[in-house]
Amino acid sequence: MSSPDSAAYPSHTAHEIATQPDCWRKAAAAAADHGAALPGRGERVAVVGCGTSWFMALAYAELREQAGHGETDAFAASLFPVGRRYDRIVALTRSGTTTEVVNLLARVRGQAAVTVVTADGTTPVADVADSVIVLDHADEKSVVQTRFATTALALLRAHLESQGPLPEGVRTVAEAAENAERAVVVPLPGDLCAAEQITFLGDGWAYGLALEAGLKMREAAGAWTEAYPAMEYRHGPISITAPGRAAWVFGQAPHGLADDVARTGGAFVAESGGGEGAMDPMADLIRAQRLAVHLAGARGLDPDRPRALTRSVVLADARVAQ
Questions:
Q1: How far apart are CA 213 and CA 211, in angstroms?
Q2: Which tens digit of pLDDT belongs to each residue from 162-187?
Q3: Under DSSP, is residue 172 helix (H, G, I), strand (E, B) or coil?
Q4: Which of 63, 148, 154, 214 falls 20 to 30 Å from 28 in CA-CA distance?
Q5: Rounded distance, CA 302 to CA 8, Å?
Q6: How many CA atoms lie within 13 A of 168 on its CB side?
Q7: Residues 293, 180: Cα–Cα separation, whole Å
Q8: Distances in Å between the alpha carbon of 14 and those of 17, 23, 140, 165, 244?
């Protein structure tokens, strides 16, 4: 089968996906300038966000704990346990206007140091934060988030690098950006472009990226996707995999999983498992983003303006849970 290319369907989203390697490098270079605003070793930290930003928070929290830098929790902003003690709360929000994030930070300000990572420092979130880190070079025209989210994660990863050794097997941001250069141009596998369904799986910090890959496919292309921790796949989700469907693993695949998927007749994808030539999981996410754009175009959908979605969820006061 031929290998389709997402470039066949030009869009803001496709352009933004392709610019990620440079965005990551800029964020990594700027990390040292924001050291005082980012979590220090030993701090007890909560990272919050909504949607894509929440998934990046999950990835960072796992990375930070694996690196031994301190207890780190990640929450959807609407589920944050107000009253639990933290030294610092880090909020990821591209728009800076998301109701759940703004309201949460207003409630917890003064209980912990509050740092916001956003694409626009002039938005309401700046009024409820102690420190604001603006990644405006990674802002996006598309409703669907791609480069801002991964650039925020690159910033946080680079800060971890500056504080000490990364967990075994985790690449530097510079290495991830090199992998990303390949990810933005490598042909997309034809069997994935034709797949009826894809289950995304993630090991460790890559679980957050698996969740994000599934979300991108649903947002941009209306595709049937699911996402689980890699070791949970055998506990039920494997039953959905069959010929014409696929399981895509981010990070190290559990022993024997490839054989288990082969027995279902489904396709098995694992390009970021840590072996020689494998991609960094964040770079592998770029391939899933590109696949989402390709499928959207093939289905006559606009990935820049997905159905029922807006750039930011801003709720009327009466609809916000207190």
A1: 6
A2: 998 889 889 999 999 999 999 999 99
A3: coil
A4: 214
A5: 13
A6: 2
A7: 17
A8: 5, 15, 11, 34, 26
